Amino acid sequence: MGLMAAVPAPPSPSMAAPSAPPSDPLGDDLGWALGVLFRAYAKSSHAALSNVPGGPRGYQVLATAVRETPRTQLALAHQLGVDRTVMTYLLDDLEKAGLVTRQPDPADRRARRIVATDRGRERLRELDARLGEVEAHLLAGLPDAEQSTFRALLQRLAGHVNTADPMTDTCQAVAEIDAC
Q1: Taking Cα atoms as reference points, which of 123, 121, 124, 134 lies closest to residue 48?
Q2: Structural domains in the chain?
Q3: Positive or negative CA dihedral for 142, 159, 70, 88?
Q4: What is the dihedral of CA 65, 66, 69, 70, to 10 degrees?
């Protein structure tokens, strides 16, 4: 099929579709923009992480275990804002999948270190590639140089806000958002 055949004829004036709504209906409303990006990221990342136990939370635990910080189960729960009992179940599932192990902490035998397995490290590489595709799609509206600037500024803002108002329980944060 030739190029001309692939391009549809323009509609007649009487059949023209109504103009499309603006892509930013609320102009400079930060909340609207953050909400749109968050919704798109949450949906896409959830799909990309669907085969890891715990979904996005499981990914965060695995990524943290691979980076070896924090070392203990309790410190990990605090850092990620996950209730410690929920963290126990999440780690059970990740351990059953062969992605992490719990090992006694040599510095404190009562504590357990979370250690990524070789299988966990491989899975993280796969998941990171999937998330890279999600992020590339979401940031495609920005030139490459602006993408890295956007990421750096966003990380800086998130760090600042989290220092001022640390997230200690992600479930509570979602409940607060849902109540709005």
Answers
A1: 134
A2: 51-143 (1.10.10.10)
A3: negative
A4: 0
- Give the C-alpha separation, 133 to 130, whole Å: 5
Q: How far, CA to CA in Å, does 40 sit from each of 30, 33, 54, 117, 137? A: 16, 11, 19, 31, 10
pLDDT 10s per residue in the chain (180 long)? 333 333 344 444 444 444 445 566 677 898 888 999 999 999 999 999 999 999 999 999 999 999 987 778 888 888 888 898 999 999 999 999 999 999 888 888 888 889 999 999 999 999 999 999 999 999 999 999 999 999 999 999 989 998 888 876 665 565 666 665
Contacting residues for 90 by C-beta, under 8 A, at least 6 apart:
53, 54, 57, 58, 61, 82
> Residues with Cβ < 8 Å from 116, sequence gap 6 or more?
62, 65, 66, 68, 99, 100, 124
DSSP three-state, residue 139: coil
Taking each helix axis as running N to C, give the angle between helix 55-67 and helix 73-80, from 0 to 180 degrees, rounded to the nearest 10.
120
**Whole-prediction pTM:** 0.72
9: its two tokens = 């004829």
